[in-house]
Design a protein that fits this description.
The chain is α/β, with parallel strands linked by helices. It is built from three helices and seven strands; from the N terminus they run βααββββαββ. Strands 5-4-3-7-6 form a five-stranded mixed β-sheet. Strands 1-2 form a two-stranded parallel ribbon. Strand 3 and strand 4 form a beta hairpin. The longest helix has 30 residues, at about 10-35.
Amino acid sequence: MQKSPMTAQGLKRLEDELRQLKTEGRPAVIRAIAEARAHGDLSENAEYHAARERQSFIEGRVMELEGLISTAQVIDPSSLSGDRVQFGATVELVDEETDQERTYQIVGEHEADIKQGRLSVSSPLAKALIGKEMGDSVSVPAPGGDRTYEILKVTYR
């Protein structure tokens, strides 16, 4: 079984979602199914079919989350150090064309959120950054052509 690298925060988010689905999502959908059944003929009951679809989604997501949690390999970025970019690093970059600065933390695939500055370790940018150090330039293929970034700072927190 292959382990999935993940930060403690990412694991906590998955565990919180799983807990919410088990304690709130499941009971709510069971109530909705029971209520829809009380309305009679199930073959033409849109509420019943919607509730069953929701139940199917919840059960699938519960199974997915349990699998992700069971294969999680928690890596604490604050225990890491060094000048090279690796999993868990917070990297400050500057786009060499636009001079726009960005900061990303390299995290596991299932906790990535680009809007929150969490970059998936399997993304092209993260793959280009891994192993590089402050001052290095990296070129990343992008839909509009290659983008070049300079690494300004590498920290572990």
